[in-house]
Structures are given as C-alpha cells and as structure tokens.
Write a structure and sequence with these properties.
The protein is mostly helical and 208 residues long. The protein has eight helices and no strands. It is globular, with a radius of gyration of 17 Å.
Length: 208
C-alpha cells in the first residue's frame, strides 16, 4: 500500500503511455468514439501526474489556498485521501465509458469534469492564489478541453446525442463531484494523518 500511495500517479502516467501506444497502433480499426474515450481517460491520468508529480505541488495549493490549513502536509487532503479520490475518479468515472461507448451520457460526464477542471484550475485557484499557474491547469486547457470538444463534436456530427444525454450526464457529473471530491475530502480528512505529502508536493506552501 505504501508503494501505491507513493507512486500511483507515476503508474497512471505509465498506463497512459501504454494506452496512447494502443490507440495509435489501432487508429484505423478501433471505432473513433472508442479512441476518443480512451484519450479522455489518458487526459485525467496526465492531469493527475501534473498535479501530484510534475510540477506536483497541487496539494500545497489545495490545502493552503482553499482551506487556509495550518498543516498543509496532511489536512484536509493527505497522501492517502489523494490516492483514493484520484484513483476512483480515473479508474471508475473516466474508464467506465470506454467499455460502454454507445452510452453517450456516460462519456459526456467526464467531458464536463474536464471543463470543470478548466474553471477550477484556470480561474478559481489562480484568483485565490494570485498566480497565473497551478499544477493541473496546463492539462486542463491543452488536453481536457480539446478532447472534450472533439467528443461533443463527434456525437453531434453522428447524431447520437440527445437532450436527455445532457441532462443525465450533468446529473452524473454533479454526483461524481459530490462523492469523489466534496464528500471524499470530508470522509477521509484527518488532522492527525501520518500519510503526509512530501516537501515537493507542498511547493512553497509549507507548514507555517
């Protein structure tokens, strides 16, 4: 568990590279919507790598800027909760649509999550931190956004999306945010957690 807790984001990058190789090698045979959904899954893996490994100081930003934590190395987000929340988002919320590509609302919800990341990283965190960048912003804008637009354009071009898909995807997205992000941080927070973030993951937002 300690090994996974320390390297889950690196494992994600490795899996993302393998998926990209698979998609590129089977570009002409795999249905296009499947390829888009696979790349959407890769997007979240790259996003998490940017947040937690390189440059990797998202935990410091999150705990200090949003929650004014006096113990940013462990509260409210800690290494254990970060792993559980992010692994759940990537390997459940983002990966599930890959196996059900015909269920448009299932694939649309991660797209909405990607757009949410743009607002969260590109606007909310930057305003609060008074910065022009925070870990996660680059992949949100340059990976999540184009893939999301690609997916929406594809389903409209092939006339497979309906108003009900938008409604269901929005509901599913809101539920996912509530469970994984809002409640996940509430359920797993621990002021005495021993699963602390490294100095690298805190960046300049170290314990006061």
């Amino acid at each position: 568990m300690n090994l996974l807790r320390k390297y889950w984001q690196d494992l994600g990058l490795f899996i993302g590279i393998l998926v990209c190789i698979f998609v590129s090698m089977n570009w002409g045979t795999v249905p296009r919507i499947n390829s888009i959904l696979w790349l959407s899954f890769v997007a979240i893996l790259l996003h998490q790598f940017e947040e937690y490994r390189w440059p990797g100081y998202f935990p410091g930003v999150f705990n200090t800027v949003l929650f004014k934590s006096e113990s940013p190395e462990r509260y409210p987000l800690n290494q254990q909760s970060a792993m559980i929340i992010n692994v759940g988002i990537a390997y459940l919320f983002y990966l599930l649509p890959v196996f059900f590509p015909s269920v448009v609302w299932l694939g649309m919800a991660p797209v909405l999550m990607g757009f949410f990341q743009i607002i969260f990283h590109g606007i909310v965190l930057n305003i609060k931190a008074k910065k022009i960048y925070n870990p996660g912003m680059f992949t949100a804008i340059f990976v999540h956004l184009p893939i999301g637009i690609w997916y929406i354009n594809f389903v409209y071009k092939h006339d497979v999306v309906s108003l009900m898909d938008w409604i269901l995807s929005t509901i599913y997205f809101v539920i996912a945010v509530y469970i994984f992000i809002v409640k996940g941080n509430t359920w797993l927070k621990n002021k005495n957690s021993v699963q602390i973030f490294s100095q690298h993951q805190l960046g300049t937002y170290k314990r006061r």
